[in-house]
Here is the input.
Amino acid sequence: MLTGHPANNVPESVYAKLGAGLHTRPDHPICMIKQAVYDFFDGGDFGAFTKLDDLPAIVPATANFDDVLVPADHVSRSPNDTYYVDDETVLRCHTSAHQAATLQKGERAFLVTGDVYRRDSVDASHYPVFHQMEGVRVYEEGEWKAAGAASGAAHAEANLKAALEGLAARLFGAGAETRWVDAYFPFTEPSFELEVLFRGEWLEVLGCGVVQPAILDRAGVARGAAAWAFGLGLERLAMVLFGIPDIRLFWTDDARFTKQFRAGDLTTRFSPYSKFPPCFKDVSFWQADGGELTENDVCEVVRSLAGDLAEAVTLVDAFTHPKTGRISHCYRVAYRSMDRSLEDGEINELQEGVRAALSERVELR
Ligand code: FA5
Ligand code: MG
Here is the structure.
């Protein structure tokens, strides 16, 4: 398998999120989105879907990658992007980890919801733990032929787009601005992403496509069948639907947040409680000759020390020293609490901690 990476790169702060089950708490916005998607498919004409929301998040690396045809050298396998529990086991980085096994069990239309984990950037729409819902629908040869389709793949693609456009219209209203973007996933062809206009910017809310025949074949689906699959980003959908400005809010216990949501009421618009000012701190360092300290590494150091007080980590400057050829990177950390104002002393202490942790790996400037 992979060599040259630590057997386990999961920080305590990430382990602590396992089992939180936000998607199973009826009044939580993530669960409300799950339920809204269930209701959409239950009331539509895309078939009857089996719903699974309690599959364990710790999965064999083969399920997360190989079973969905992720190439052996694909970046997503790197410990810079994925949390490894040991060499053969990961925290799933997408709910696609359950595609093959669920097909293998004989399911032909299903929705799998769960928490997924990624080493990723730190900002208002990225968090190391988030939630996805996988949808898969297989059309047996007889079904797409009866519908008069030119091919199984064409039938799957047309139904996929109809389903997801219908879902977006149901959630956001017919007037919402959405657009399809061509994408690449190893497990689908063709592949697309759907973006929604949110606060003046295009926000990617899902990836999808027509399932690669090899996946169906290996899972024992009859020849001639075709299928679509999608992976919804539930936080992103909830941010757009409820107007939640920052992904960290999903994890707060502050009653000023939690009390705003009630199962079944999709009309709620989040009303922000007073926004406290951010505080910015910069840290610069020389990259070592051997291997670079990546943005994900810096984000993880900041996250593990500052937790949800870290609002964003941004590379603000990079230059190469003209004489020595050494590379300098400067990162800006934005600290902000959602619930209270921060003291100078507290922020300085956090930033000192970040500097100390970074100085163990690189030379600070
Ligand atoms: C996937 O994870 C694919 N497995 C989706 C898929 C399934 C494609 C089936 C085809 C067929 P992607 O990495 O783009 O794709 O993530 C899917 C969605 O998760 C994104 O569109 C986004 O809404 C959400 N997402 C991705 N990264 C984060 C993050 N760090 N924080 C919050 N949401 C995220
Ligand atoms: Mg994507």
About this structure: The mean pLDDT is 95.
